[in-house]
Amino acid sequence: MIRSIHTRDGLASSYDPAVAEAMAEQEMKFGDQAPTGTYYDMIAKLPLVDPRKVLSPVLLVRGAHDSNSTSEDLLDFYQQLPNSDRQFVILPNTAHSSLMSINRHLMWHVVREFLSMPAPLAV
After folding, report:
1. Report field, pTM of the whole predicted structure over 0.85
2. Beta 86-91 vs 58-63: how paired, if at all?
3. Does 123 reside within a domain?
4. Please, are residues 57 and 86 in contact by the beta-carbon 8 Å criterion?
5. For residue 44, which phi and psi values (nearest 5 degrees)?
């Protein structure tokens, strides 16, 4: 299951295979089975929160090859957010686990830019 995180989205080339092996090796210390609850929630219960109740600024980031949800699903969530302080970004050549990918620098870039955005002058 741990290895499949890096290959299931059809862009295995965006990951260093050594990362998947290192993760699997470390996780196996805790057992050789994964609970189905989180995967069930991911498939059957998304979104887990009501977007209309999220009042904080939001950075919604999706890998272009992420098979967990569609861009349409995420755009629907995004459009329901009540705060106009929000950004929706699709990262090229990344999948679901962008922070573990070869292109993780793209994720760090958009996070840094979101967090350092100057406050608007007009309110």
Report:
1. no
2. parallel
3. no
4. yes
5. -100, -20
Phi first, then psi: give them for residue 63, nearest 5 degrees: -75, 140
E strands, the chain, in order: 58-63, 86-91
Any domain includes 121: no
pLDDT-derived band at 109 (thresholds 50, 70, 90) equals: very high
How far is the C-alpha of 78 from the C-alpha of 60, rounded, in Å?
8
Q: Please tell me the total count of domains within the chain.
A: 1
* Residue 11 in this model has a pLDDT that exceeds 90: no
So what's the pLDDT on residue 77?
Answer: 96
Residue 122 counted as domain residue: no
d(CA 91, CA 106): 7
Please provide residue 54's backbone torsions phi and psi, each rounded to the nearest 5 degrees.
-85, 110
Question: Residues for the chain: how many in total?
Answer: 123
pLDDT at position 50 is: 96
Domain range for 30: 2-115
Please state the rounded mean pLDDT for residues 31-42: 72
